[in-house]
Amino acid sequence: MCLAAPGQVIAIEGDSAVVDYGGVRMFARLDALGEPVKIGDYLLVHAGFAIRRLAPDDGAETLRLFDELAVSVGESRASQSPTLESAPEGP
Amino acid sequence: MSRPFTFTDPQRARALADAILLLAPPEPVKIVHVCGTHEVVITQHGLRRFLPEQVEILEGPGCPVCVTSTRDIDLAVRLAQTGRTVCTFGDMTRVPGTRKTLEDAHAGGADVRTVLSASEAATIARRSDREVVFFAVGFETTAPMTAAILLDRPPPNLSVLVAHKRIPPAMVALLLLPGAGVSGYLAPGHVSTIIGLAPYEVLPREHGIPVVVGGFEPLDVLYAIALILRQRRDRSPIVENAYPRAVSEEGNQKAQAMVAEVFEPTDSSWRGIGTIPSSGLALREGFSLFDARERFGLEGEEGEEVALGCRCAQVLTARATPDDCPLFAGRCTPLTPVGPCMVGGEGACSIWFRYGGRPRL
Questions:
Q1: A56 in contact with B at a CB cutoff of 8 Å?
Q2: What CATH number should be reported for the domain holding residue A26?
Q3: Closest-approach residue (CA) in chain A for B222
Q4: In which domain, by residue range, is A20 found?
Q5: Which of B43, B205, B213, B294 could connect to B192 by a Cys-Cys bridge, CB 3.0–4.6 Å?
Q6: Distance (Å, rounded) from C-alpha B112 to C-alpha B131?
Q7: CATH 3.40.50.11740 residue ranges in chain B?
Q8: How many angstroms separate the Cα of B119 from the Cα of each of A31, B146, B187, B298, B339?
């Protein structure tokens, strides 16, 4: 129900944008977005309305967060060398 | 087309799964999410196999179609059967009310239309000389769209049967149910795109429950689970944002303003849980002209009806898994659903039926 898919803006017509989802093109209304949109932007669209503009760099930023967590958990384990069972007692 | 927001890379999945193993405590942990889309990602990608045995993740009241009260469905059926065009989202037409579904009404000659967007209902009304009722279901993600059509010169023959619900009050209510045993919440990403982080603050502050807002790529979900486990390990429950590319602290303020202009909070009845204070939305005075309940003098006098043996109420409150139910995959299947959890593409029973639920390893 709360499905929202990221797509790329390929045209803007008044208060709507034509958004491309890997070949499928749909109109998305822009009146619930509250920020300017230009061609090439990525939008998160829910039930025919854009709800958020995504910066293309945000994908790389997300991967950096994943990697940072995996490294920090791995390091905290290495520094204490606990067994798997005692890990929860850590800092 | 490049897909910059698809995260399924197996190496990173392995690294996150290792982090989960290291962060998991020895005692049982029950993480509850409240979004059908999360359940689809978890089940379709088999993410439960990455979790150690003592960590489980279950869907709570996360499917708006499933938690809509039979009373509201009965009202929609009655409107359809008395000559109004009723527009609603697809799954909603198949959920049983006390006696009938909207699909049954349609089969009996009523005009029931499936729409993908609230604005389609407005378009249908503009092209029709009949009364057109939009049966508006959905959480905070969807309510702004209903507000948008009412703020955009709605045609006079359009009205709205509002059944929108707000998820944070249900997350609090769930904690108070006997046997809930919630250790942490994976909060819904796109609801949070709209409402931001503040509405969840009450959960860690007053109930000591970790809350992590998660996205919908498989790696997003694993990452959010790891953060919930880390909060538990550190005994520092907070609201944490694991989906910053789509969720800001303050949320989508334009959408919030539209909802606030059109709706006010009201008590609302949830299938499986009961009435939760301030968990619904009602049209404000200035929009009562478009309220289907007022326009047609509707009152919901029918009660809740539960089919014998159906455990949807327990499934919706994360106190049973679909395969705990004696009807699951026997008498109750997506083609012959008994309870609402088997109807919606986002109901836990329907998802477990399609993708196999919890892997038995």
A1: yes
A2: 2.30.30.140
A3: A66
A4: 5-54
A5: B213
A6: 12
A7: 23-311
A8: 12, 8, 27, 24, 29
Q: Over the stretch B228-283, which tens digit does the pLDDT of each residue have?
A: 999 999 999 999 999 999 999 999 999 999 999 999 999 999 988 889 999 999 99
Is residue A85 over pLDDT 50?
A: no
CA nearest neighbour of B191 among A28, A5, A26, A1: A1
Statement: residue B83 has pLDDT above 60: yes
This prediction has a pTM of 0.92
Residues of A in contact with B255 (CB under 8 A): 32-34, 51
What gap in Å lies between CA B132 and CA B88, rounded to an integer?
11
Strand partners, A16: A13, A29
Estimate to the nearest angstrom the gap between the alpha carbon of B91 and the chain centroid.
12
* Residue A82 DSSP class: -
Which of B123, B145, B149, B258 is most worth mutating to test chain A (most A CB atoms within 10 A of its CB)? B145
β-bridge mates for residue B276, sequence order: B268
Residue A87 has pLDDT above 70, yes or no: no
Using the beta-carbon criterion (under 8 Å), do B226 and A51 form an inter-chain contact? no
- pLDDT, one tens digit per residue, over B312-357 is 999 999 999 999 999 999 999 998 888 889 987 889 999 999 998 7
Buried b (16+ CB within 10 A) or exposed e, B277-300: eebbbbbeeebeebbbbebbebee
One-letter identity of residue B77: V
Q: What is the ipTM of this complex?
A: 0.89
Q: Specify burial of residue A68 (Cβ count, 10 A radius: 0-12, 13-18, 19+).
A: exposed
pLDDT digits (tens, 9 = 90+) for B115-127: 999 999 999 999 9
Provide, as residue numbers in chain B, all residues whose Cβ is less than 8 Å from the Cβ of A44. 190, 193, 246
The percentage of chain B sitting over the pLDDT mark of 90, rounded to a whole number, equals: 85
Contact A69/B194, CB-based, under 8 Å?
no
Please check whether residue A75 touches B, CB under 8 A: no
Q: Nearest by CB to B5, which of A59, A77, A84?
A: A59
B23-311 CATH, one of 2.40.128.190, 3.90.180.10, 3.40.50.80, 3.40.50.11740:
3.40.50.11740
* A68/A74 Cα distance (integer angstroms): 10
Report the phi/psi class of residue B329: left, alpha or beta, with left for phi > 0 and alpha for psi in -120 to 50. left
Measure CB to CB from residue A49 to each of B26, B145, B189 and give the nearest one: B145
Distance CA B135, CA B158 (A): 11
- Chain mean position to CA B271: 12
The DSSP 8-state label assigned to residue B166 in this structure reads -
Q: How far apart are CA B128 and CA B124, in angstroms?
A: 6
The verdict on a CB contact (< 8 Å) between B37 and A2 is: yes
